[in-house]
Design a protein that fits this description.
The chain has 19 helices and 27 strands. It is of the alpha/beta class. It has three domains: 254 residues, 4-Layer Sandwich (Glutamine Phosphoribosylpyrophosphate, subunit 1, domain 1); 190 residues, Glucose-6-phosphate isomerase like protein, domain 1 (Rossmann fold); 150 residues, Glucose-6-phosphate isomerase like protein, domain 1 (Rossmann fold, 3-Layer(aba) Sandwich). The longest helix has 18 residues. The protein starts with a strand and ends in an 18-residue tail after the last helix. The structure holds 5-amino-5-deoxy-1-O-phosphono-D-mannitol. 5-amino-5-deoxy-1-O-phosphono-D-mannitol binds next to helix 9 and helix 17.
Length: 619
């Protein structure tokens, strides 16, 4: 995810901005940029290299100016490049903006209200400085001039212009605005975090506490809809047109704690970001009940012989297995899923004209998946990369790319990226579906409920999930079982548990245990059973009864209101009820939390499990 920082005070801004950006470097970025205001003039420096590179290439004379803003970019709209790096400026170069978030309606603003502007980048962000410039005229008595530097640095006018500009935006943002000649900064937020660090005759702004913690531990958390005028010795905050007071919080965390947002591990932070990953991924492709992937991508739902082949590894493979069920259920398009490492050396028969190949890969760099993608191309298949990382190898190889919008994932165990992959499959299923509109809208409404559903599971963390994790942590072997769309989720649950807690765990189709693994069932082999009330609920419950009869303790993941299940299992983790096809979302959040807390109980090295790497770039 992008990071933004700002400084206004008595010290030189540039070293402070660079230091603050370094503090959020761990979140990952592909380019960076800063702006320093020196004697009222704005100077911008950008780089597609590192922050260190940017620093090394700035000459000493440029280390002047007491106001600055900075940005680390993690590309969403437009490739990583200097022109797409922030800050972005208006046509006259007098208004500069750094932005975190996604502006959903930027294209219609560009085509409509701003059709006369010359845009320099492909970003959604660039509409903001242009909009501020255009709207400023309304608040300026000498509108024809529209030159900020001439004015009396009237903070209130600038704030009103920013407000008016923001009112035209759909989407999410945390922004910092610098205006030539203005002795302060404007900060505003909607659905993206933003804080003000309070100093002595200086103030800081940042998307993340760690960015400013070295300078001050006095933090004001801006709230939804806040807009602030931040000057050297004053902070004015307004919400819905009236001034508001926001309390200062004294942060006691170390910088290292703060990087993890106060969570002990990145993995836990990332699990807690799952609702946001769902929102951001939906937001990328869904506007006013229309799904648009913005790529040349068509496959007729009922066309004879047309199908999708997904290739992937690890967690992405399990996401693909789940995606198969989702797409086949919603769109009735046949989907086959292959492990990339197997596909690469198999005698797989591929009909290039009829099979579309999708490479599912969070990092976009996994060697096996890349090989599979290249093999599909050799067969003449249309190829699509589904990935989290803009500009990654997969995006450069595939014909088309669909980005999941999970934000950078630091923990080796994939969590929020898995959830975001599922969201893409729901969108794909609905995009390809030929169902009556009322049915389509019903599914869409359910999909839009998923962030809230995920939050409800997170609310269970302290009460039930930690308790069950303490129980599970005593065992050395476990089975995870599920059926249908939740078979893949049981495989994912087992993978997550084994990779971070080192408990031997196996995911299995619930109906398959009796064909062999029953021999392993004892009182020391707990079974985690996904018992969603779907069309095969009774069958899965039957399988659970068979398991119980062999003496294994059973923990069920079951829906609220399902009282039946209590009779047959030892423990129940409750998840909210959803349409059956959407049940993988709450079930996954529950299993991710269960794996995390079990590993924590066993005092494992959670973010960097032994022998594993985040991105496996060797065969
Ligand atoms: O970046 P990718 O999605 O291609 O990575 C694939 C696997 O290496 C990855 O999912 C791995 O299984 C994770 N450690 C699972 O948590």
């Amino acid at each position: 995810m992008c990071g933004i920082v700002g400084y206004v005070g008595e010290r030189e801004a540039l070293p402070i901005i660079l230091k603050s950006l370094k503090r959020i470097e761990y979140r990952g970025y592909d380019s960076c940029g800063i702006l320093v205001q020196d004697n009222g003039k704005m100077h911008v420096y950008k780089s597609v290299e590192s922050i260190d590179y940017l620093k090394a290439n700035l000459s000493e004379s440029e280390y002047d100016g007491k106001i600055g803003i900075g940005h680390t970019r993690w590309a969403t709209h437009g490739a990583p490049s200097k022109k797409n790096a922030h800050p972005h400026l208006d046509c006259k170069g007098e208004i500069a903006v750094v932005h975190n978030g996604i502006i959903e309606n930027y294209q219609s603003i560009k085509d409509g209200f701003l059709s006369n502007c010359a845009f320099k980048s492909e970003t959604d962000t660039e509409v903001i400085p242009h909009l501020i410039h255009q709207t400023f005229g309304k608040f300026d008595q000498n509108a024809s001039q529209q030159t900020f530097g001439k004015f009396d640095q009237n903070a209130s006018q600038i704030k009103e212009a920013v407000k008016e500009a923001l009112s035209r935006l759909n989407g999410s943002y945390a922004i910092i605005v610098a205006v030539e000649g203005f002795d302060g900064l404007i900060a505003a937020r909607k659905e993206s975090p933003l804080v003000i660090g309070v100093g002595d005759r200086e103030n800081f702004i940042a998307s993340d506490v760690p960015a400013v913690l070295e300078q001050t531990n006095r933090i004001i958390y801006l709230e939804e809809g806040d807009i602030a005028i931040v000057k050297r010795d004053s902070i004015y905050i307004e919400n819905s047109g009236s001034e508001v007071k926001r309390e200062e919080t004294l942060i006691e965390w170390t910088i290292e704690d703060a990087e993890k947002g106060g969570y002990e591990h990145f993995m836990l932070k990332e699990i807690h970001e799952e609702p946001k990953a769902i929102i951001d991924t939906l937001r990328g492709y869904l506007a006013e009940d229309e799904i648009n992937f913005g790529v040349d991508f068509k496959i007729e739902g009922d066309a004879k012989g047309k199908s999708i082949l997904m290739v992937a590894c690890g967690t992405s493979y399990y996401a693909a297995l789940c995606g198969k069920h989702i797409i086949e259920n919603l769109a009735k398009v046949p989907v086959q899923v292959e492990l990339a490492s197997e596909f690469n050396y198999s005698d797989f028969v591929l009909d290039g004209t009829n099979v579309m190949v999708m490479a599912i890969t969070q990092s976009g760099e996994t060697a096996d998946t890349m090989m599979a993608l290249k093999k599909a191309k050799r067969y003449g298949c249309k190829t699509v990369a589904i990935t989290n990382v803009l500009g990654s190898s997969a995006t450069r190889t595939a014909d088309e790319t669909i980005y999941i919008r999970a934000g950078p994932e630091i923990g080796v165990a994939a969590t929020k990226s898995f959830i975001a992959q599922l969201v893409i499959f729901y969108l794909l299923g609905l995009f390809l579906a030929k169902m009556p509109e009322s049915e389509f809208l019903e599914h869409l409404e359910e999909l839009k409920r998923m962030p809230q559903i995920a939050m409800m599971v997170l609310d269970e963390e302290d009460i039930t999930i930690q308790k069950h994790a303490r129980y599970l942590s005593k065992y050395e072997h476990a089975f995870f079982v599920g059926r249908g769309v939740n078979l893949a989720i049981s495989l994912e649950g087992a993978l997550k548990l084994k990779e971070i807690s080192y408990i031997h765990a196996e995911g299995y189709a619930a109906g398959e245990l009796k064909h062999g693994p029953f021999a392993l069932l004892t009182k020391d082999t707990p079974v985690i059973a996904i018992l969603t009330r779907d069309n095969i609920y009774e069958k899965t419950l039957g399988n659970v009864k068979e398991i119980k009869a062999r003496g294994s303790p059973v923990i069920a993941i079951a829906e609220e209101g399902d009282e039946e299940v209590e009779k047959y299992v030892d423990e129940v983790i409750r998840v909210p009820k959803t349409g059956a096809i959407f049940s993988p979302i709450p079930n996954t959040v529950a299993l991710h939390l269960l794996a995390y807390w079990t590993a924590k109980e066993r005092e494992c090295e959670i973010d960097k499990p032994r022998n594993l790497a985040k991105s496996v770039t060797v065969e």
